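To assess whether ligand presence alters the predicted conformation, the chain was also submitted together with iron/sulfur cluster. Input:
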Amino acid sequence: MTAAPILSVDDVQVAFPVGGLLARDAILGVAGVSFEVRPGETFALVGESGSGKTTLARAINGLQDISQGAITFEGVRIDGLGRARMKPLRRRMSMMFQDPVGSLSPRMTVGDLVTEPFRIHGHGGRNLRDEAVRLLNLVGLPADFAGRYPHQLSGGQARRVGVARAIALDPALIIADEPTAGLDVSVQGEVLNLLNELRERLGLAMVIITHNLHVVHHVADRMAVMYLGRFVEVGETGTVFAAPRHPYTAALLSANPEPDPDRARDRITLPAEVPSLMSRPSGCEFHTRCPWAQAKCAAMPPPAGDVSCHFPLSPGARPPPREDRP
Ligand code: SF4
């Protein structure tokens, strides 16, 4: 039997007022997305900067109000709870922020940093020194790192400290925003292996937010590709990487360096800038950039589903090129 979802996001919108608080107009940073994450599963939100993925993650974590839809965590509706009522839930849902060193207070030792969640949420009589050693051990750092300060850490070590803080309170879900940003490629691999190992060992579910497709391939079971605040393609990571069906997904993957020359893809160059959220294109919102757009694409929004496209790609068969280009 499939386990019940630990997190359900149902038709969520996030609207930002335009022109001040009294303004009537709003832009949609997230425009109605739905997904579920089950225990032990990693779900990746992928997209270019400005696609809405970080806004969506902040909404899940209660740091951003939603304007429509519902967010349910461990069977409890959590949207609209407010920061105070979210606090106890943060024991079970922790957030790893993007900047590995900047997110750590420079005046605190590593020991204090990794045990800070206990001081915020209560430690139930635990010995914090022992907890620091246990957590450092879990993330592969020696016990004597407890006495170091953030400026004495490498980028990879700082990220491990961030992971230790995130798992301190035994969460069921971790939301990780760009978990390898700013790290060398070899260190990225170490951090991703650590996340995979902890997920298996602790039974964690994860939501990973990234524009880095290498990260997605390495850790995610399922993925959603975001464009202008909507999901354009959702699916099993292996399936999407093997045969992307939405033209935007295909373009992102074609720009991803492929180490195996036999599997290298033809590069798909996207011709235009990303449209502004203030003036969303008609019909399929990707039609201004899509190499395969047809007249129907500008006229009608594509049907909802795992692939939001009138003419999804299929392996070995490409639709005709768009009608307004040679
Ligand atoms: Fe391209 Fe048309 Fe599909 Fe949109 S609906 S992605 S414009 S082919």
